[in-house]
Amino acid sequence: MKKYLAASLTITALMSLPSVQAAEPGHYRIDPAHTTILFTVGHLNTSKLIGRFNQFEGDLKLQPGQGEIDIRIQTASVDTNHQKRDKHLRSPDFFNARQFPEMRFVSRQVRFDERGEPVAAEGTLTLLGKNRPVTLNITPVGAGKDPWGGYRAGYSATAHIKRSDFGMDYMLGGIGDDIAIQLEVEAIKQ
Amino acid sequence: MSMELLLPSLILPLSLSALLLTLGLRHPSLRENGLPAIWLVSLLWIQGLNWPPTSALEWLPAIALASMIINLGDNGPARRLAYQLALVLALLLIAWPVLSYQLEMAFILALLLATTLASLAATAPSPQQPATILALATGGLALAAALDGSLLIGQLAGALTTALLVFALMEWLPRTRNNSLGQAGTRSATLLFTALLAAAWLYAELATGPSLLLLLAPLGLRLGPTSAATLVLGALIWLITGQPTGESYY
User: Fold this and answer.
1) Which of A36, A128, B5, B184 fits as disulfide partner to B71, beta carbons 3.0 to 4.6 Å?
2) What pTM was computed for the model?
3) What DSSP character marks residue B61?
4) Which chain B residues touch A130 with a CB distance below 8 Å?
5) Contact A174/B2, CB-based, under 8 Å?
6) Low-confidence stretches of chain B (pLDDT beneath 50)
């Protein structure tokens, strides 16, 4: 009986340990080759459409108390796997990419947990020339050395915005107002 | 099509144009200057008013107002100059966000060409059926923009087309066959058409070839309605044949 109790306690203790290694503090640069920026939007109140941005760059300063996040996305790189729809999304009806080629999220209020991992970032999203507060909820995925002698950290992050808050209010009847943003980030320590 | 699209771009301008023509039977100046006002009402419904403007299209209400102001006063060289200045200013306001970071000779030449052609068309001495010709041009633009980039610009051009169609109808009815659009309405409609076409080309990636044909269409005010119809038809055929097949998604 004692053996079983000891074994189950050991298993419980192991399960309660952090599942991922905390990333080393420092300055990280987003690796575009291993990062995905997705958005989900409703269509005709019947389904959800997922799109992505293919061109972006970003920097993360992961230092408890001094955290900073700066992500810059090229709006013209919007990709919903449909050439004509992407062209429409680049037009003044939506992203107006010719006039507003970049959207940007900047946060200097990054919250860290007791292990020093970022868990949320309160910042400003600039889209169509308008600045609105946005909170990015962050989940650490993993961190460690890569085979080339570098050091990498990975995070999943989510945010929710209303496109009408940024003046993107055309076709609100058919294309949803609520946009879910999802980032799967791999960043390389500089 | 949903009521959201139909109301401001079809039903509203149609009703207001009919009302304007009825009221304008005894007041020609009201009738001739009313077209941009009708379009402005549709525009504000479709796009709202954001002042000061932050995007190129948000300058359109100011351009519509300018197209009314230039019609005040007497006909003469001063008005002609004011019209040309209004054209240049309107196109600069539309193009500035692009020109400010991409000052390319091609854009400057395109804007100069647009100003020259619009000015040439709008100052035609005694055009035949101007409302028909301009309705063809704006209707072509509405279809082209909706097919090839921006439903918003297509809707705005559609509202202008609908307003013009009531005037065009007056040109074709045997009893009322007259130029109810007048010089003022012709000037305003040409200015608004050119601004919308510039916006479609610059921001909605409307293909250059069809855009050029559409830009030439108002010259029908000098050459006749058949040439305008041919140019618009050519632009639409060019656009449709250039579309990838099976790519419709609206």
Assistant:
1) B184
2) 0.88
3) H
4) 54
5) yes
6) none
